[in-house]
Specification:
By secondary structure, the protein is mainly alpha-helical. It has 2 domains: about 20-45 and about 345-565, MetI-like fold, CATH 1.10.3720; about 65-125 and about 145-290 and about 295-305, MetI-like fold, CATH 1.10.3720. The chain is about 70% helix and about 0% strand. The chain contains 24 helices and 2 strands. The longest helix is centred in the N-terminal third of the chain and has 41 residues, at about 10-50. The protein is globular, with a radius of gyration of 26 Å. About 45% of the residues are buried.
């Protein structure tokens, strides 16, 4: 009887060599992520600091530029304007968003899905749309100009217009945070309160508000930062009302005063960093609102309360539709306000004569490139960070750099790109004013949210996948391709959609970096508005909104198809 020789198992040395080979690939990828974040994030920010400490000839002057800024009354006025407007918008928006979120989560009103969708519409539009709509409603030739005069305002331009437009733009951001905060409620607390005979008002102040306090703080910080660093709205409707964001643009583009521009850029960076630190600190103190034994809260019908909540929600939805509807209506009006007959003149003039068609195509290229390359960079970086071993000293650096973009306003990041990539001695100088640099800047600007989304999805996967793969001598990249990627495909789509929509609507991140051949649609709106072509500007804003909406619907359909193909295991099939 013949015997069959079985293959001998690989030696320990061979296993170590194989593991060492795959670990080298993982370490190289992790190092490449760090290098990319250093070059396209850390070094541009460092360039702003260096520029603020130099004179126009490049000599070191210390804090002279800062003292000169503090001695300029007009610039200090801009700082104060930015602070009080941001505080006022936050004070208006957060209570309104909280009440709307309360209506969606704690009442039995109908049409919750529709109302929430309408409230989130501003996310799909450039912030300039609200400013343009307000001009058509209440401007010098506005449809109801006398309405604001009844409230004591002579015109919408300036602080009143900035505050109103920012409230519209910031509202959905606060709403998303507060809906999440109010959704995390344990019904057992309310049942115990009912059993003790606790009144509705006391339950609100002793259970609801304490449970949502971290969400309220986060919503307030996000709202303050968004207003403080926004450029588009003050530029369009601010008039002579100066703010820090518009000062940066005037100093850098108008006066070529890069030193003072760097100083103002650092001032814009300060509140964003402070709010980020505060938000990170309170998030560490937050405790879990839902335990394993928690019972989801389900609102009970209450006729009077539900009617009040429905009226409020309908009012907010009507205001949202009024903003969007006016922009659409004005984009089709023949000659505002004398001939309101519908025409396609503004679209044809904008797309053909003003070369907005090329800008819109550039926007699509920018958004597609940001979505594709940004999703790959973010997910691979998160995977290398969470699912591989080794290079422990480098991992905290990756986490810090991945979180830093959340604290950096787009305007500041774009300013840093000017100082860094426009240096003649920089080997990357050839990227300046090219579409690839706009894509890279946009990816870095929105990197943190995509990174956190990817990390959350990866942490939900059992580490046994990698352990079993290692024991079977399967390289990590095969596990990534065959297991991790299919399971996380819905997350990849969410990240790609987030990148695409934000790239379509962003202004501040690219306003310093475009050339005539790489101008994007959101910048074209500014140029059209400055040229007095408000109708064509509105048409361009509507095109961006329509394009973002269409792509969102395509992502939803693609997500439905992907879930059927890759997520059947979740249903136990």
């Amino acid at each position: 009887m013949s015997t069959v020789a079985l293959p001998s198992p690989p030696s320990t040395t061979a296993l170590r060599q194989r593991a060492h080979w795959t670990d080298r690939i993982a370490h190289a990828l992790l190092f490449a992520i760090v290098l990319a974040l250093v070059v396209f994030l850390a070094l541009p920010l460092a360039s702003i600091l260096v520029k603020s400490l130099q004179d126009p000839q490049g000599a070191f002057v210390g804090l002279v530029n800062f003292t000169s800024y503090l001695a300029t009354p007009s610039l200090l006025t801009s700082l104060w304007n930015s602070v009080w407007v941001s505080l006022l918008v936050t004070a208006i928006t957060v209570p309104l968003a909280f009440t709307f979120a309360y209506a969606l989560t704690r009442s039995c009103i109908p049409l919750k899905g529709t109302l929430r969708t309408i409230a989130l519409v501003p996310l799909l539009a450039p912030s300039l749309l609200s400013a343009l709509s307000l001009i058509y409603w209440f401007g010098n030739q506005g449809l109801v100009r006398g309405f604001i005069q009844a409230f004591g305002f002579n015109e919408i331009y300036g602080a009143p217009g900035v505050v109103a437009a920012e409230c519209f733009a910031v509202f959905p951001h606060a709403l998303m945070i507060l809906v999440t905060a109010l959704s995390l409620a344990d019904a057992r607390l309310y049942e115990a309160a009912d059993a003790l005979g606790t009144g509705t008002r006391r339950k609100f102040f002793t259970i609801t508000l304490p449970g949502a306090k971290y969400g309220l703080i986060s919503a307030a910080l996000v709202s303050f930062t968004l207003v403080m660093t926004d450029f588009g709205i003050p530029k369009v409707i601010g008039g002579n009302f100066n703010m820090l964001a518009t000062d940066v643009f005037k100093l850098v583009i108008g006066q070529q005063d890069f030193q003072r521009g760097a100083v103002v850029g650092l001032l814009l960076l300060t509140p964003a960093v402070l709010t980020f630190v505060v938000d990170w600190t309170i998030s560490r103190k937050q405790t879990a609102m839902l335990s394993a034994r928690a019972v989801p809260y389900r609102p009970k019908p209450a006729r009077g309360f539900d009617i009040a909540m429905l009226v409020f929600a309908l009012l907010i939805a009507a205001l949202m539709l009024a903003m969007l509807g006016m922009a659409v209506f004005a984009s089709f009006a023949s000659f505002w306000p004398y001939n309101l007959a519908p025409t396609l003149t503004h679209y044809t003039m904008g797309l053909v004569d003003a070369e907005v068609g090329d800008a819109f195509v550039n926007s699509l290229k920018l958004a597609a490139g940001t979505a594709f390359f940004g999703t790959i960079l973010v997910f691979v970086g998160a995977y290398m960070l969470e699912k591989t071993r080794g290079m422990d000293a480098l991992r905290p650096v990756v986490r810090l750099l991945a979180m830093l973009p959340m604290a950096v306003p787009g305007l500041v990041l774009g300013l840093g790109y000017i100082f860094f990539f426009n240096l003649p001695g920089n080997p990357l100088n050839g990227l300046y004013q090219t579409l690839p640099l706009l894509v890279l800047c946009t990816i870095v600007h929105f990197y943190t949210t995509g990174h956190l989304t990817a990390v959350t999805a990866l942490k939900a996967l059992d580490t046994e996948f990698e352990s079993v793969s290692a024991s079977l001598k399967v390289p990590f990249f095969k596990t990534f391709w065959r297991v991790t990627l299919p399971i996380c495909t819905p997350t990849l789509l969410d990240i790609a959609r987030y990148f695409f929509i934000n790239a379509m609507t962003t202004i501040s991140a690219v306003v310093f970096l475009y050339s005539p051949s790489t101008k994007v649609a959101s910048i074209a709106i500014l140029n059209l508005d400055e040229a007095g072509e408000a109708g064509a500007a509105a048409a361009c804003a509507v095109l961006i909104t329509a394009g973002s909406t269409l792509v969102t619907l395509l992502f939803i359909a693609l997500g439905w198809w992907v879930n059927r193909r890759t997520q059947a295991w979740r249903g136990g099939r």
